Amino acid sequence: MACEISGFSTPARPLSKAVIKRASKLGFTPPRVVDLSSVTDAWATHLESFVALGRHGTMTWLEDTKERRAHPKSLWPEARSAIVVGMNYGPDTNPLLDLDKTSHGNISVYARGRDYHDIIKGRLKELAGLIARDNGMDVKVFIDTAPLMEKPLAALAGLGWQGKHTNLVSRDYGSWLFLGVILSASRLEADTPEIDHCGSCRACLDICPTDAFPAPYEIDARKCISYLTIEFKGKVAPELRTKMGNRIYGCDDCLAVCPWNKFAQTGREAKLAAREDLKAPPLSELAKLDESKFRKKFSGSPIKRVGRDQFIRNVLYAIGNSGDPGLRDSARPHMQSENPVVADAAHWALAQLEDL
Question: Which residues are catalytic?
């Protein structure tokens, strides 16, 4: 900890030029700093309300860890500063265009390449090592796998602001940033928080196919297609299935429609580049995946974590929404699935295509 004697403490230190330069070399945005003493209880209040209303759905880990998420110091009491960086993964084409390819699956942009955790974590550790060397204080690294609220931290650091869809928006990168956080026991010079630039725009709210936003800056995960395709493991309500379209893993609608994307840049990190076979893959091919083929196809991909059966469930919903009677034969074999959720999805898909 910094030396504090007779009411005096060591002054805040700026990040070194070496750290800033290395961050750029590693593919990160310029690092931004938060003085953790500036974090208020607003985060805890917002999260408490979100959970109390049941908007977290089946994500019980959010409820179980809400006290730890309330403040970074709840996670690590010695932390005094947070260094926040982003990594751009901007797509080379508008993902909304893929929604018209109804016989093909639409995969969220972030999941079309390698799992970003595998790419960012090592680089973030390297950057953290430089910060620890400069300041002689302990550091800890986080990439959305710990109970830490990265988006409000990024806004407080000035990397962007949380838009009306609750996601981070950047004036320089639009909607397309992965976030990494380094907590440091050192007192570092803080940057200025970013202000909200959404104004009267409500494009992200209006485009949501399932009306998952009860109000600006609020989300009900139970209606969000990203939640339904990734986190929710049961039978999706029929009234929501029809609105999922061909989205088989995640949803980018509220991100892609943001006007600030006019300043976005195509991601330059080759390891995050979209695989050609995951750009609008044919539903007929995906429906053929057995357990072994699923694991092989999605090795190193975040998609692998949902498991084969849940992924096939999503594919079958998309087949039902496709309007393509030629996909009946792709759905039919799954009617005999031992998994009741998959079998239900197959019966539903065929019923949707029955009169076409």
Answer: 144
